[in-house]
């Protein structure tokens, strides 16, 4: 028989392991029973409603702590300006910000996983409200009038060390030295001054 007519099947598991891998978590790794209960609730809502909001909340509940960056109350004030009656939703921690002096903009409803005592006190004192995700599911099962917010993911100090190698031309990557705040005499000669080889 003519062998040219028969081609091998594409084995996705062997030939293309990179394409077939799971790109995000399908369940939380945490042992926190309250997170697991929220996952159970939002799995149901994501399945039984056509709301994309519920699917996003469920996906964010699975995320690691480093992918749930904290949000300050100053950012909430900025984002909620002119959005009266809407619910600020954060799948993560909300923290206080002492640089925010005017508390009048804190009069809104906030739904989050965690909140610091200082941030909670300021929101409640301004006439705002802090609710949990199970309360949100009763109020807005499809995410109506909810503003979904998240913190700055790349704000972690470790991101300063990622990128082109420190010392190569056009690199602004931070080097790992013994004491990065006081390292005056490390990685400051060749490549950092014209008299030693070259200057970046």
Summarize the structure.
This protein has helices at 12-15, 17-20, 33-48, 52-62, 73-79, 117-125, 133-139; strands spanning 71-72, 87-95, 109-115, 129-131, 146-149. The protein is an alpha/beta fold and 200 residues long.
Keywords:
single chain; 200 residues; alpha/beta; 29% helix; flat
Mean pLDDT: 89
**Which structural class best describes the helix and strand composition?**
alpha/beta
Q: What is the molecular shape?
A: flat
Reading the helices and strands in chain order gives HHHHEHEEHEHE
Descriptive overview:
The structure is a single chain. Helix 3 runs antiparallel to helix 4 (52-62). Strands 1, 2, 3, 4 and 5 form a 5-stranded parallel beta sheet that branches. The protein is 29% helix and 12% strand. The protein has 7 helices and 5 strands, in the order H-H-H-H-E-H-E-E-H-E-H-E. The model has no long low-confidence stretch (mean pLDDT 89). The protein has 200 residues and is α/β, with parallel strands linked by helices. Helix 5 (73-79) links the parallel strand 1 (71-72) and strand 2. The protein is flat, with a radius of gyration of 24 Å.
């Amino acid at each position: 028989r003519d062998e040219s007519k028969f081609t091998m099947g594409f084995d996705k598991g062997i030939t293309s392991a990179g394409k077939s891998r799971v790109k995000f978590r399908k369940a939380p790794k945490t042992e926190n029973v309250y997170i697991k209960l929220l996952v159970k609730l939002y799995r149901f809502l994501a399945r039984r409603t056509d709301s994309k909001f519920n699917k996003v909340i469920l996906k964010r509940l699975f995320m690691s702590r480093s992918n749930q960056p904290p949000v300050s109350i100053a950012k909430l004030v900025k984002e909620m300006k002119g959005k009266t009656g809407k619910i600020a939703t954060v799948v993560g921690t909300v923290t206080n910000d002492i640089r925010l002096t005017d508390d009048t903009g804190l009069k809104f409803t906030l739904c989050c996983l965690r909140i610091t005592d200082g941030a909670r006190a300021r929101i409640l004192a301004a006439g705002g409200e802090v609710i949990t995700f199970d309360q949100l599911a009763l109020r807005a099962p499809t995410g109506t009038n909810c503003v979904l917010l998240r913190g700055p993911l790349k704000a972690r100090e470790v991101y300063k060390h990622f990128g082109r190698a420190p010392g190569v031309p056009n690199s602004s990557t931070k080097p790992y030295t013994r004491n990065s705040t006081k390292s005056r005499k490390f990685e400051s000669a060749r490549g950092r001054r014209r008299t030693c080889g070259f200057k970046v």
